[in-house]
Amino acid sequence: MTLDKLPVGHQATVTSLNGEGPLMQRLMVLGILEGSRITMLRRSIGGDPLEIDVMGYCLSLRKAEARYIAIDAA
């Protein structure tokens, strides 16, 4: 499952980042690493962007960016 499909209010653990280049480096610098816990806080009308909680702060991501983040919602 990818982060863009996580329902609002649910938590998940990042299992991998599927991509390469500057976007992946940016996500890692922002704290989205394998093993990080993420909570989906809200989605804007239309579903883009998404607001997540990672490492105690709120982060907004586009759905296209969230599709690169594989998660385990269990």
Give me a quick take on this structure.
By secondary structure, the protein is an alpha+beta fold. It has helices at 22-29, 63-66, and strands at 11-17, 37-43, 50-54, 57-61, 69-72.
Describe the protein in words:
The protein is an alpha+beta fold and 74 residues long. It has a single domain (3-72), classed as Roll (SH3 type barrels), CATH 2.30.30. It has helices at residues 22-29, 63-66; strands spanning 11-17, 37-43, 50-54, 57-61, 69-72. The protein has a five-stranded antiparallel beta sheet. It starts with 10 loop residues before the first strand and ends with a strand. The mean pLDDT is 93.
Relevant terms:
74 residues; alpha+beta; SH3 type barrels; five-stranded antiparallel sheet; 2 helices; 5 strands; 38% strand
